[in-house]
Design brief:
Layout: H1 5-9, E1 18-22, E2 28-34, E3 39-42, E4 48-53, E5 58-64, E6 67-73, E7 78-81, E8 87-92, E9 96-102, H2 104-114, E10 127-130, H3 133-146, H4 153-170, H5 187-199, H6 207-214, H7 218-229, H8 233-251, H9 256-262, H10 268-279, H11 283-289
Antiparallel strand pairs: 1-2, 2-9, 3-8, 4-7, 4-9, 5-6, 5-8, 7-10
Length: about 290
């Protein structure tokens, strides 16, 4: 019987540097290890997972599922292991990697909502040491956000969703035969979503809350919102919060901590980091330029 990522992780030669469970009713798991034993016996797991190879170039040996592979991989390359597969890994080079574990239910939801296909016909395919700039960027962005003390949950969930989409596009039998389905929100559902966002800009809301306000599931909502507006729900919400913060910075002399709170950010540190990421300047410099 397949093991859980939690129970298998306890068998490794050292604890993870990062261990996060993120998401709603069916969460995903993100872990990072560094400096543990170079040979790892990976048992059959009940989750699919993407492994990101960090720390520099290395030589990977992987044995199992009836074959043995050896590959030189660059930093940021990725491997995919479908649920149920078991391998032995041997690394010659820096031991530094992150695992993103996805419950098959999450993958099935993405297949149904983003690809508009029956999940029972889609299979995740294993690969070793492939290079893809989008997967690398998403993975590193997720690690950066999860290692932060003031991460924004809806941002993390949106990137995890995109990581699953990209994995399926590259490493499943969906990659050539299933174009992304085009879904749009009905006007009344879009209005509900936009009204909810505007009413709750100062609150700690996420994509699941906006989807619930529109009356559809989070998985269908994210794709449909993006198709309708041209922006992912989190990016749209963040844009509205930044716009509100700009208005407050221009029109009054409120302390930055108050502006952060009124704009829906968890604290001043998160506000400053996200504001600079989106605008290129920190809030205080933006105010001085007005």
């Amino acid at each position: 019987m397949p093991s859980s990522p939690e129970s298998w992780g306890q068998s490794l030669s050292g604890p993870p540097l990062l261990d996060k469970v993120v998401g709603g009713a069916v969460p995903s798991i993100v872990r990072r290890w560094k400096g543990i034993a170079p040979v790892i016996d990976q048992v059959s797991l009940d989750h699919h997972f993407v492994s990101i190879h960090l720390g520099g170039p290395k030589l990977l040996h992987r044995r199992g599922e009836g074959k043995a592979l050896e590959r030189d991989v660059r930093a940021g390359a990725h491997s995919v292991v479908p649920a149920g597969a078991a391998f032995q890994w041997e690394t010659k080079g820096p031991i530094d990697f992150a695992h993103f574990y996805f419950n098959p239910k999450i993958v099935d939801h993405v297949v149904a909502s983003a690809f508009d296909r029956n999940p029972s016909y889609i299979e995740v395919e294993e690969t070793l040491g492939d290079a893809d700039d989008m997967i690398t960027s998403l993975a590193l962005g997720l690690l950066d956000e999860l290692e932060s003390d003031d991460r924004q949950q809806c941002y993390v969930e949106e990137m995890l969703h995109l990581l699953v989409c990209r994995m399926l596009r590259l490493h499943s039998n969906a990659r050539q035969t299933l174009p992304l389905a085009r879904h749009v929100l009905a006007p009344f559902r879009l209005r509900r979503a936009l009204d909810f966002i505007e009413t709750h800009l100062g609150s700690q809301i996420g994509v699941e809350d906006i989807a619930a306000a529109s009356g559809i599931s989070r998985f269908h909502f994210s794709r449909a919102f993006r198709e309708t507006t041209g922006s992912a729900p989190y990016a749209f919400l963040l844009g509205r919060r930044i716009a509100l913060a700009k208005m407050l910075l221009i029109n009054n002399a409120l302390p930055l901590a108050d502006i952060a709170r009124q704009s829906g950010f968890a604290n001043l540190s998160q506000f400053s980091r996200m504001f600079k990421r989106e605008t290129g300047v920190c809030p205080s410099n933006f105010r001085q330029r007005q």
